[in-house]
């Protein structure tokens, strides 16, 4: 049967895939998508804990409220981040993270 | 949720999640991420979080990923496809992920509290109906249906009213910031 550990492990694998993408990829848009994937993996953990921690016979809705806030903040973050990427593309004419090395020592 | 469905949606989510990292074409990555998020939404729904599953599809698969696709097509970045990946970064990324998964596996294998299934912690509608104060939620619970959106809304507006306003301000600041950032400078 499917236990809480199954959900936690699946969410961990999704987080690990996102982490690999953030470290290995050089396209800034792909890195951004992998960040979204890591956030969603954390959301899955929260929802799983919410369902398995019953309060008064119902899932713990505080966790789901937190997930709601996370999704809202992530949406705002994507909007601002993509605007920054567009501004970066206008100056550097590239979406490669290697092209942005002004602060490199 | 029956076990085969759980494995189907988990594999769907993980395989398309891996494709996001593997695909060289950003459009293919974005579309894979949409499918991955649909699988994730199915897992949310399997955990009785219908509202969260719905907004996962509406906000992430709908709004956020359309924004991503819009930007990818706007920038027209197919020229980058020819570059070969940095092998050191790829090996490092995979090593980090493997270390993380080994750690997680060793923690979870000792986690006795995680060995309960959804059937072990059933939602107790009658107990919940006695505690709830709102009539509409109470009536739903007495009919043994889970008024998920109502309960999330009740939690948000009763316990986190300040945070809701803060999120509203954040979205406003985000909107203003995006307009400011994407505006072409005059002169």
Give the SSE map.
The complex is a heterodimer of chains A (105) and B (187).
Chain A: H1 4-24, H2 28-52, H3 61-92
Chain B: H1 3-22, H2 26-46, H3 50-75, H4 87-109, H5 125-131, H6 135-142, H7 148-159, H8 161-182
Helix pairs in contact in B: 1-2, 2-3, 5-6
Question: What can you tell me about this protein's structure?
Answer:
The complex is a heterodimer of chains A (105) and B (187). Chain A is mainly alpha-helical and 105 residues long. Chain A is built from three helices and no strands. Chain A has helices at 4-24, 28-52, 61-92. By secondary structure, chain B is mainly alpha-helical. Chain B has a domain at 1-83: Four Helix Bundle (Hemerythrin (Met), subunit A) (Up-down Bundle). Chain B is built from eight helices and no strands. Chain B has helices at 3-22, 26-46, 50-75, 87-109, 125-131, 135-142, 148-159, 161-182. Chain B is extended. The relative contact order of chain B is 0.06. The model of chain B has no long low-confidence stretch (mean pLDDT 88). The interface between A and B is large, with 73 and 88 residues.
């Amino acid at each position: 049967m499917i236990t809480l550990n199954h959900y936690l492990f699946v969410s961990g694998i999704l987080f690990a895939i996102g982490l690999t993408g953030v470290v290995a990829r050089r396209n800034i848009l792909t890195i951004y998508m992998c960040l979204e994937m890591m956030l969603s993996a954390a959301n899955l953990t929260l929802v799983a804990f919410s369902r398995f921690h019953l309060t008064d016979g119902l899932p713990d809705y505080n966790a789901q409220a937190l997930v709601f806030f996370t999704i809202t903040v992530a949406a705002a973050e994507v909007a601002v981040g993509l605007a920054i990427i567009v501004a970066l593309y206008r100056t550097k004419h590239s979406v490669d993270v290697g092209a942005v090395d002004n602060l490199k020592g | 949720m029956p076990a085969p469905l759980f494995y189907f949606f988990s594999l769907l989510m993980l395989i398309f999640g891996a494709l996001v990292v593997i695909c060289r074409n950003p459009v293919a990555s974005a579309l894979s991420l949409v499918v991955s998020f649909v699988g994730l939404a199915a897992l949310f729904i399997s955990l009785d979080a219908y509202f969260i599953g719905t907004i996962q599809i509406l906000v992430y698969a709908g709004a956020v990923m359309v924004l991503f696709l819009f930007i990818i097509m706007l920038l027209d970045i197919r020229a980058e496809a020819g570059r070969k990946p940095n092998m050191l970064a790829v090996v490092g990324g995979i090593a980090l992920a493997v270390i993380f998964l080994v750690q997680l596996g060793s923690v979870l294998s000792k986690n006795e509290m995680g060995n309960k299934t959804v059937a072990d912690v059933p939602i107790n509608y009658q107990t919940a109906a006695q505690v709830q104060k709102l009539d509409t939620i109470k009536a739903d619970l007495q009919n043994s249906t889970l008024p998920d959106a109502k309960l999330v809304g009740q939690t948000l507006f009763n316990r986190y009213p300040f945070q809701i306003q803060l999120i509203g301000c954040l979205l406003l600041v985000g909107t203003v910031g995006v307009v400011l950032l994407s505006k072409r400078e005059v002169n």
